[in-house]
Amino acid sequence: MHPNPVTNGRSRSVAEPGSGTSAPELVVTKLAPPVTAPGVIERPRLIAARSSATTHRLTLVDAPLGYGKTTLVADWYRRLAREGTIAAWLTLEDPENDPALFWRYVIGALRSAGSPVRSAAEMMLGVPGADPGRAVGSLINDLAYHRSPTVLVLDDYHVIREHRCHELVAMFLRRSPPNVHVVIATRSDPPLPLGSLRASSQLAELRARDLQLTEREAAEFVRVGGGLELGDDELALLMARTEGWAAALRLAVVWLRGEADPGAAIREFAGDNRHLADYLTEHVLAGLDPALESFLLKTSILGRMCGPLCEAVTGEPSAADFLARVERANLLVVPLDGRRQWYRYHHLFAGLLQSELARREPGLARILHTRACAWHREHGTVRAAVDHATLAGDYATAAEIIAGSWIWMVRSGHSATVRQWLERLPADALSAAPELGFIGAFVIGRGGAPEREVERWLGIGESALAKGSAPTGGTPDGGLSIGINGDLVRALFVYRDVAAAAAAAQRAADLSRGASWRVPAFAVLAFLRYLSGDPTSARAAVSEALADRDAPLRPHSTIHALAMKALLELDSEDLEKSERTARDALEATSASGLGDSVGAGLAHTALGRALVATGRGAEGMPELQTGVECLRDRAPVAAHMYALLSVAEAKLGGGDFVAAQRAADEAQAVLDTFDDAGILTTMLADVRRRSQLARRRRRAGPTTDLSQSELAVLRLLVGQKTRAAVAAELLVSPNTVKTHITSIYRKLGVGSRAQAVLKAREQRL
């Protein structure tokens, strides 16, 4: 576990489930429905509809706030679980707009329900910058393999706004096996392919009109849940006022219990639901003692609350007693765990309380949010701390928390959350904290953002520095934004100019002496010097990265450096060592769960090239293809182009001209946008040239003009013998062997040892 960057060494006495920043845990109370409130009535007409949960791909329960969606779906969930169906529950909240966190929770919900899903998908979600779609695909495979009837309930889906989250849910619905069914409870239609599902009879729907309480249900609710006896006319009037809205009816019951003449009170109602809710709030609050009323108003700003948090926010030492009073009075509070430690208010009631707080004491909410931020910060619940700081308008504190915790969030795969934090900060807050601009550039760059967006964030950071703004608090290495500055970001994301990126990497490396970001600086410098055609400098940079004492603590960069070492050994024709180093790099990716990282992609490419070079094309080609897929749509773009051209070279050497041409065309479409692509331009031109030459030679028939000496050398190129070893066996000088090899390559129309061996086998030489 990484040290918590926001606890300042203090221990946690009480913390929300899921606290911590180094590897964010799941809040377990979100993986089960809320405890059923007393007085909930049976609704047989809706319970019968639960059969749709196992006969349709998606069941959509869509109605405005307060119509009883959660209560209904929770009842379905419990009944399905009792019948032996794997029933998984997830209550969604704003933080799950991070795709990685969203699917970590889905996996956690399935595991909590007893689904035997493997850990592979979860490991993929922990890889910074990785596409969560790969993890979703792995999860789908697990569910298909075990074939157990499974229902996944996603409650409060309306809080999800992140487009990528919706895309992946749509993918899950489209590709899940027949044994998997999804139930979504939401306040509005989600941007999912509902039309297609409806047309294929794979969608069951319950809308507000279906969830409205009938007169019989309302009467039972009032009598059983509220302990009130109303006449038929009074019930009918109450129904007319609430229009079957369960939440409004529940508020009315709370109020009417304190009225001497409930019938007369009902007749005083007027207006639509919004006015009715305001009226009910006034009367509910008016019936409470001032201390309890004050407690409700002040704690309404909390999404989740426990006794110690409420005490810190309200200043009331007996906050836990107030919470117990609120629950006993059934004042629309929902317990979140069986120990009655964590609670939340009914969303409607919380909103009404917040409106009343703003009306009575303008400005107090900011103070309360500041106190809540301080408590969450002390207890390590970073997401809540940032949320409350932002709501308090204390953007300097929000910036300080982000600067101290973003690296742990990114390393655990939650870059989207960091991006959302930054996007919520106003321009003046970003101008006051230059490191936030560099953090923003790094985070969105890792997510595949276009160059203009990365440059925009870099401009924010550099402009702030030019104005003399200082970093918000100390950073571990004394540098900006925990080591990510403009030079290193520009080196990481090579969009158009390899030489410029290499120069930026060199500046970052020169500044890195003694800094914690020294290893990543030299690892990226090695790759850029390699692409620049300077293998000597690349080797020196690799040595610096791997020799650094922090290398074991920087697995991403260490894997990247090992992959580069393997490529450099390959170019020096030390094929055996290159293969061994590439396999070491891939073992490191498995050990650290970074199999989908940029370094892993380069390691697969290095291993594939080494295998092809030793005549094992059948083993090498899958490695090369894996490298391409690891690096597709990732930064830096140049790494993907290198992997593509490596595939093109191997395909060409194997005689598959169509596949080689396809890979070359894909690479050229990107490289045409570069001002300077380094050796990539040469690689592409060489593939084009050799492809044309090979086609001409193939049309001309088998090549037979190799001399006997050249044929002798050619036979010894099979395997892993060095030039010196070949020379020793033939009793000639190494220079003579080099001359023969050059002639062999020219006559066969190839450019490498592996391609020469493959061509010789094709032509039966």
Structure overview:
There is one protein chain. With 765 residues, this protein is mostly helical. Helices cover 61% and strands 5% of the residues. The protein has 39 helices and seven strands. It has a five-stranded parallel beta sheet with strand order 2-3-4-1-5, with helices on both faces. A two-stranded antiparallel sheet has the order 6-7. Strand 3, helix 6 and strand 4 form a beta-alpha-beta unit. The longest helix has 22 residues, at 679-700. The radius of gyration is 32 Å and the shape is elongated. The two termini are 59 Å apart. The relative contact order is 0.06.
Helicity level: 55-70%
Secondary-structure-derived class: mainly alpha
The outline comes out as elongated
Q: Report the mean per-residue pLDDT as an integer.
A: 83
Give the assembly state of these chains. Answer: single chain
- Largest beta sheet: what is the strand line-up? 2-3-4-1-5
Number of strands: 7
- In this structure, how is the largest beta sheet organized? 5 strands, parallel
Number of helices: 39
pLDDT < 50 stretches: 1-23, 474-483
What labels describe this entry?
single chain; 765 residues; mainly alpha; five-stranded parallel beta sheet; two-stranded antiparallel sheet; 39 helices; 7 strands; 5% strand; elongated; disordered N terminus
